Write the structure tokens for this entry.
Amino acid sequence: MYILLVLPVIIAVYLIYIYNQFVSLRAQIKAAIQEIGNQLKRQADLIPNLIGAVKGYLKHETAIFDKLTEARKNALAAVEEGNAQKMSEASAKINQVFTPFKAILESNPEIKGSDIVKELTMNLSDTADKVMYSRRLLINLALQYNTLLSTIPSKFIGQMFGFKEEAGLKTPEGQSDWLEVSSTETTTPKVDL
Amino acid sequence: MKSDFYHEISANRFKSGVIMVFFIAFVAVVGYVFGLANGYGPSWGLMAFFLSLLVAVFSFFWGDQIVLSLSGARLADKKRDFNFYTVAENLCLGSGLPQPKLYVLEDSAPNAFATGRDPKHASICATTGLLTKLNRTELEGVISHELSHVQNYDSRLMVITSVLVGTVALLSDWFTRSLWFDRHDRDEDNKSNLGIIIFILAIVLSLLAPIIAQLIQLAISRRREFLADASAVALTRYPKGLIAALEKISADYEPLETANRATAHLYFVNPFKGKKITGMFLNLFNTHPPIEERINALRTIS
């Protein structure tokens, strides 16, 4: 007798719980995409500062400056569009140009001694890390969401309310999902205590 | 491989819950037996229960503050501790955890610990030795290990456990003293067999209590170190960073000055490593698994 009363309540509670999970995950995915955009914009905005700081020392390296500026433009366009996949590709492109650029900076003794350049390169590497970690968060969230959407019984609730699969991110072929850092770059700056 | 690892996390979280309940029950039962043996009746069990509950509640809300103020750490600064600050920021970004408060402890021995009752009220503390001796990738390994302690609610369990261990030690101390001084007054009117059995049991318990409590504390922290290492790698996806950090730290033989018996299990590696502790219980009473075992476990992941 009681089961007739209790069962609908249990079903209703379960339904609300799963529905809320879908909504909350979707909101988190949106926030993660926005985070990638914010960090990528920060990374892109650091580039002109760095170029400005070292241009005087590197008069013959105009080719790499052009490449960096182009990668930056590309990144800003991706941020404007708000497409996660394009943003993460744009970030990968910046890193591709930035790594040989860093080697140039390190080989130049005049630049190596500059505190501003050191701070800017440190911040640029750090924002690259931040883009990578927010990408990773997006991948995880999309995986969670899509698993919920494709497993029984949450699948039926998802279909009932018309939740669509999230694209997530593709990891570029042959590229590992972490950044290798050179040892010179990672030596901790001296802390005066 | 990966699903094994996630299964391990949930299994370990369940087990740690069981241990926690067992611990509280243990304190109450010990108090109860002590009370009976002393002739005060079962009220002692209740007293012990409320006392331990009070201490546990206190440690739940203010345990992290106590630990941090005892260690004398200062708040970290983004400019001054750039790598520490940004690495923690990034790992939180990747795991979706809220940013913990970051502290720096002035000590040249490389070590770190996490504390706090949940991810929203967490603090991570690193020594200046850790920040200067490790590079960014290695630091990332250590900080993600500490963040894993926060994420798995280890930091809560650890703070509470250390206070519970303290309570048990206090209780048994108190009992042993009262046993030797009060006992003979009541010997005349309490000669039943039951009284003697309880008396013997109480002596055994009073001897065992601190040892059992200590062993539980060790069981918790040893297994948890492996789990935190594994979750750290799930976060950074770069076991080599943590392995390199462990190797560097194990080559360093400086003991941490501010650590004591009650806070030892909080740290990234055993803070007493430099000091020679000899005796038959050497291995049993070590708060951390040997670093080589941790490195080997990490190698099997990668």
Notes: The longest strand of chain B covers residues 122-127. The mean pLDDT of chain B is 74. The first helix of chain B runs from residue 2 to 38.
